[in-house]
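User: Run a structure prediction on this.
Assistant: Running it now.
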Amino acid sequence: MDLKQYEQKKFALAEIIRATQAIDTKDGALLSEARELQARLAEDRFNLMVVGRFSRGKSTLMNALLGGDFLPTGIVPLTSVITTVRYGSRKQVVLHFTGTGLTREAPLSQLAEYVTQRENPGNVKKLAYAEVQFPVEVLRRGFFFVDSPGLGSPILENTLTTERFFPQADAFILVTSYESPLSEEEDRILQRIRNTRKKLYIVMNKQDTVGREERDEAIEFVKERLEQFSFAEDPQIFSISAREALEAKQTQNTAQLERGGLQEFETELMRFLIEERAQSFLVNMYERTTSFLIERSRAGRSPALEDAYLALIERLRDQRSVILGASDPPQDLIRTDANAAAGPYALEVDRKTGCRICGEILESIFRFLSKYQYDLTIQPEMQQDHARRGGFCTLHTWQYEGISSPQGVCEAYPRITHSIAEELARFAGCVSQQGESIETLRSLLSTSRTCRVCQERIDAERRAVAKAADAVRRAADQEQHVPACCLPHLVAVIESLGPGTGAQNLLQAHAHLMERTSEDLQRYALKHDALRRDLTSEEERRASQLALLLLAGHRNVSAPWVIEYLI
């Protein structure tokens, strides 16, 4: 089981809970209990808390795990408040203030003004915590990193702030270093962590500052010190250079990344999340959902309701092996690139139209109509040709209206309305010849064959498809950005490319995009059902629109009311 499979198991439980709500929509207790279960599924997150004395490299380690210089670092007691790191569609900071429900958004560049001892000494700005959001894939799957104020800081409140967050942590990373491993302050925090009976990892940072022999001696010393705490499970110790690991990720230096020691630690974190914590969560939620359904079935409201609940219980039991099945060894565990599974192509999704080809068509139509609507108001010959064609088709008539003014319509449309009025009056005299008159009336309608904008649309689409195909060919097998397409235009681009690696990679990238969109749809539905829309990311809020854009194209390009198909 990997993180993606874990999410799908949660979605399977959510579907059964959603079906339960539909059994009796007037039962307030039923809806309340169901939403409580949905909220637990929606809020599921893995709080990984990083603790240690100041200057040990906690923030640098977090940056290395995330793959970038996101959090402020330094050699003085920097962090003065809890800083959580979660997924967001863009880089930003959300500030949560103590004693109020108020929040404030801020750019990442201003983070230090709120979380550092220099800019916010003793937390005089009354921040409860700062929430940093990044579009990093591992965060999208449920990881929440927590950067805490350094232990042993001269400011007592910093240490107390760290300890108050302990009950919310799922696992701890104690960061020490080879300079002075396990100080008295760290001994104290180890005792507090032991009492929580939660998972603990020891990270020996700055291994690049000592030789092999000194490293082995320091690790042995830490092992001996840990024995006195009698942990239920011996903490694992990892030797790391967070600085080297961060540099290696930023420069994509594989050899340096191996020397930094971070990969082994990342693999263990993911193993714990999937094999222990996630599996425990699924078992707990499966049992809670089963108990909930059994209790509802025994409520005795009516035989019909009892049968409905029993049917859902049977459905849940049928999916038991799917939801609680054995875990496979995790592979490709930590991805910091949102497009990492998309193959060699990273897709650029047009924010307005989803499909870049649809976007280029709309831009071309807008430019054409902007000039054409002006010409219609001043050129009689243009008005005459417009009348002869029967105007624009229905779709493009309203697109014309959207950029024209009432004055412009009044100047451009008298000729065509007068012409059609004459034709209607003439046809009124021959209504007895039904077949002939209907065919003649039909000739008044503008179609895609007579509409000037439709012709422009066809030409623009042809150009845009060719341009997209050329972009794919230039990308070859390199890691390049190519435009995302809606399904109708994807077919056209693939046809233009013909068989080969380019078409294969483009299809793989779109399969990945569609799968991500499907997951965002499911996440939004779950959080909406749980009345926790505050947890939704921008991507999840846009998922419904993006899904339809990708499947059908933009409504102003792929409109279903083409006149030829209506008559």
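The longest helix spans residues 262-297.
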